[in-house]
Amino acid sequence: MKLSIIIPVFNEEKTISEVLTKLERVKFSNIQKEIIVVDDGSTDATASVISNFQFPISNFKMIRHKKNIGKGAAVKTGIKNSTGNYIVIQDADLEYDPQDIPKLMRYIISNKAEVVYGTRLNRMPNFSKEERTARFLLHYIGNRFLSLIASILYGQWITDMETCYKLFPKKALAGIVLKSKRFDFEPEITAKLLKRGYKIHEIPITTNPRGYNEGKKLNTFKDGGIAFFTLLKYRFVD
After folding, report:
1. Cβ atoms 198, 167 nearer than 8 A
2. How many angstroms separate the CA atoms of 131 and 120, rounded?
3. Structural fold of domain 2-236
4. Burial of 55 by CB count in 10 Å (0-12 exposed, 13-18 middle, 19+ buried)?
């Protein structure tokens, strides 16, 4: 079995080196891994940091977009260039802990699931940590709402449709055309996996959310609205 870890990157010069170090330390039993970094037209020193990173494994690829297109486009480039049986997405900002990836893979190895999502939201709001500010509480409410809409439209209960950690077999995408270029990638791939009959198994993960002053790019209202209409659209069209 081979796992392709795809990292879409845009202007993450401060964190990408540590993310790569953490991913290199992730160990699997009898599973080969490849790491594919797609630099989506970064304008800072991200590309230089990646190029100069002393990576100790051979299965490492760096691909660069000439201009910024969006996270979805970067993920699609990574998928196109992947050679693994399974694919997982890893953000480049240190919010997600790569040591959670083997936890997701256990359900694949044991044949308990074919698609595994790491859920951050199978819980009530945490007013002392993640949701202590109005902006992040709004993120929580918006994501739970979108996950509820996905559950109703596609007939399977999920709690965190917007999670980065989506682990799925590459064969699940055979014949599927992924059209999203930006953050609408999350609802599109979820919708199309569910429409193909794949059951999404969720396992709890913890994250370390960063603030907007640290480079967070998601816009709750704009991207949330797009995600809502994306879920509606793909329920009725390809």
Report:
1. no
2. 12
3. Spore Coat Polysaccharide Biosynthesis Protein SpsA; Chain A (3.90.550)
4. middle
64: buried, middle or exposed (CB in 10 Å: 19+, 13-18, 0-12)?
middle
Q: Are strands 115-119 and 166-169 parallel, antiparallel or unpaired?
A: antiparallel
Q: Do residues 55 and 34 lie in contact, with contact meaning Cβ atoms separated by under 8 Å?
A: no
Task: Tally Cβ neighbours within 10 Å of residue 4.
Answer: 23
In tens digits, the chain (238 residues) has pLDDT values of 999 999 999 999 999 999 999 998 998 888 999 999 999 999 999 999 998 887 766 789 999 999 999 999 999 999 999 999 999 999 999 999 999 999 999 999 999 999 999 999 877 777 777 767 877 788 888 889 999 999 999 999 999 999 999 999 999 999 888 998 887 999 999 999 999 999 999 999 988 875 555 545 566 667 788 888 999 999 988 7
How many of the other CB atoms lie within 10 Å of CB of 163? Answer: 23
Residue whose entry in the numeric block shows the structure tokens 């819980």: 123
| 169 neighbors 207 (Cβ within 8 angstroms) | no
Radius of gyration of the chain (CA): 17
**What distance in Å separates the CA atoms of residue 60 and residue 55, rounded to the nearest whole number?**
8
- Structure tokens belonging to residue 56: 């100790």
Looking at the DSSP assignment, which residues form a beta bridge with residue 166? Answer: 117
Q: How many residues does the chain have?
A: 238
Question: What single-letter amino acid sits at 195?
Answer: K
pTM: 0.89
Give the type of residue at 148: L
